[in-house]
Specification:
single chain; 297 residues; alpha/beta; Jelly Rolls; three-stranded mixed sheet; disordered N terminus; 2-oxoglutarate-dependent dioxygenase activity; metal ion binding; IPNS-like_FE2OG_OXY; metal-binding
């Protein structure tokens, strides 16, 4: 039902001396790519040139550096608990943002800042684990309940993304809980708390959108059925030539809602009215965007 994406902090680029060093010219074996971008950076001798597998041809007009610095609609969800007029104004704000932008930022969303911080910390610790530990979850099968990797499929001929990711299922009854990473030791506990809270936030937003359409509050929730929640944690290491690649290429999300938390590192861009906008970081908030499934309903 909801996709929760987290962007941890960039990691150190130092080489600990325990692994073989590689340069961008050495990266001809796709196995290096399967191990992750952080592995390439950590085991490179002062990488200055982007490996060709990651070079993404971009039209000049699509360059991230040309994105407009702007702000998406900001909505205070506490208004849903206020007097009738305030509640109706909040519902209208979400409806307008959904129709005109497909994106909005929520404040006073009800999720404790401490829970958000703990989740970011646990994810950062996961990506800083030794490679062997992370490779326990390496997979290119999109149906696997837990996956670690870089681009979605490194065995196919296409440009790779400059990011590592951890993805796994969540939901109100996380049947795959026992498969989630058990290292760092806190991961399962905090991920369960965080994903349960985000699920409830998604249900609240679905209900508000339903009301804004003049429908029963539970309409979208019923249409989605039991639903599926996917946790996607994206890690973007420092890049030697950031003007030649992207952490994620332009895309739309296929689900119902994406509820995104970042760690203060700017990079998110959205397309609105044929122009790209850079979305600034605002502490303690979430960025919400409507997925393909919801827009088609």
């Amino acid at each position: 039902m909801a996709l929760t994406a987290i962007s941890p902090s960039p990691a150190s680029t130092s080489n600990n001396g325990n692994s073989p060093s590689v340069t961008s010219r050495d990266i001809v074996d796709v196995d290096y790519c399967r191990k992750g971008v952080k592995y390439l950076i950590d085991n490179s001798k002062d990488m200055k040139i982007l490996p060709p597998e990651f070079v993404l041809p971009l039209p000049e007009a699509e360059s991230p550096s040309l994105a407009i610095c702007g702000s998406i609609p900001v909505i205070d969800l506490s208004g849903l608990n206020g007097p009738v007029e305030q509640r109706l104004a909040t519902i209208h704000a979400i409806s307008s943002a959904s129709a005109e932008w497909g994106f909005f930022r929520v404040t006073n969303h009800g999720i404790e800042i401490s829970v958000m911080d703990e989740m970011l910390k646990a994810v950062k610790e996961f990506f800083n684990l030794p490679l062997e530990e992370k490779m326990r979850y390496a997979s290119e099968d999109v149906m696997d309940p837990v996956r670690y990797g870089t681009s979605l499929n490194t065995s196919r001929k296409h440009t790779l993304h400059w990011r590592d990711f951890l993805r796994h299922y969540g939901g109100p009854v996380p049947h795959s809980y026992h498969l989630w990473p058990d290292n760092p030791p806190c991961y399962r506990r905090i991920a369960k708390v965080y994903l349960e809270a985000v699920w409830q936030l998604a249900v609240k937003i679905f209900g508000t959108i339903s009301e804004g359409l003049g429908l029963d509050t539970k309409y979208i929730e019923r249409r989605l059925g039991e639903g599926t929640q996917i946790m996607a944690a994206n890690f973007y290491p420092p890049c030697p030539e950031p003007n030649k690649t992207l952490g994620l290429a332009a895309h739309s999300d296929h689900g119902g809602l994406t509820i995104l938390m970042d760690n203060g590192i700017h990079g998110l861009q959205i397309k609105h009215n044929h122009a790209w906008f850079s979305v600034p970081h605002v502490p303690g908030t979430f960025v919400v965007n409507l997925g393909d499934y919801l827009e088609k309903q």
